[in-house]
Predict the structure.
Amino acid sequence: MENVAQTTPIVVATRNRGKITEIQALLKPFPVDIKDLSQFGPIPPVVEDGATFEANAYKKASQVARVLGLPALADDSGLCVEALDGRPGVHSARYGGQGLSDRQRAKLLLDEMAGLTNRKAQFVCVLSLAVPAGPALTYEAHCDGQVTEMPAGDNGFGYDPIFFYPALGKTFAQISRAEKARVSHRGKALAELMSEFDKVLMWIDMQMPALDGPHEPTKGERACLKPAKAWTYSPRSVRSKAPRLPRPCWWTRWTKSNWPSWRRFKTPMPS
């Protein structure tokens, strides 16, 4: 009998088509079934009010994983400009307020930097891969460059047209998707994830309950099958049956010499 390779479902916890396309392309060689939020019903929006990229990435991944009952991969990324004390930073996607287009946000940033000689900037990306119970793996990478004085290029998204990458002598909007995947902040973070993806899949298998064919849902699974509103916002249902909402966390750090080899492992604080 021919063996059928099993795939692990992973939800990309974003509605940003540019991010989804990049992540799907990079993870295509692996035995995973990449899904995005458009394949599911309404999901409570995540308020990205964290003070760091890491906090926002974990918040998005953990909430989507809890609601859907599947492993979820989220990223939080942004542009940090040295002359602006790190702005727009974690507010990059909302810089200037809601409703602005990528082009308008880039123009706003260029206007704010008019006359500044220090154009150094850094793209930062933090990936968080969370499971419904709460634990998550975190990967972080950055890419150094400069902010141009004028947009250049038609590829990419976000601030790509105004981010000049000296090693290639082009903006991120002037290079191909394959070139960007090799050098960008998100590409580097995903490369680190992919370098140990066999262990990541083993970790997911250990964290997720084994479902061997049709079965009667357990008490916990029946709770997860209820409408999201019933347990996402109701303190009584959270206490009684449903998975808990995000709580204060403590950290256990790992080194590359330990197994698992990821650098950071996040678990809910013990009650």
